[in-house]
Request: fold
Amino acid sequence: MAATPFPAVLLLGPTGAGKTPLGHRIESQRWDGQRCVHFDFGENLRKAVRRELPPDCLSAQDIHFLRDVLERGVLLEDRDFPIAERILLGFLTQRHADHRTRIVLNGLPRHVGQAAAMQRVVTVRDVICLECDAATVLRRIQLDPAGDREGRIDDQLPAVRKKLTIYNQRTMPLVDWYRQRGATIVRISVDAHMTTARMWQEIRRLARLHADFS
Reply:
């Protein structure tokens, strides 16, 4: 299935920045007329643990391992990437994606090792960075301007601080990694009240300014 990499756009941003609602918006609006599917890795991890992915996607041992990953709030390391790849390919099969489909990546890759391994599956052409500081993240979680935080058990302050540390140390280097490989980097400054609709408007405005925005 992945002999020819799928074209992809990567959403980056700290927890609470609004990646998941934005991913849904991009899927519904399409990307420059191209069909999109939004791959939310966190959501699909939870589906995997609930055994809602194709039955041959993961073993019982894989599911036990992923349950522990979710409980501890840690990243999948390079040695674990085959599990992440099977989840991604299972999702693409479920969504009937072909190589005319743009994949909107959210939560994978989370670090450079994953990004390098994913090159055989996807080609990231655009990176959208939702930028906000820690105080704004906490305020956004409290206000929930995108309406997607209800019932989130991982929004307690210690968990949020841990995720912000991991994001700054492990995920932010992806911006330079993809820039060096020719991807277009689009930065959006996110405030506490910014809605998904405003993010989408800003993306479309910036797309008109970037001749290389694919």
In short: The radius of gyration is 16 Å. Strands lie at 6-12, 36-40, 102-106, 122-131, 184-189. DSSP finds nine helices and five strands in the chain. Residues 7-41+97-209 form a domain with the Rossmann fold fold (CATH 3.40.50.300).
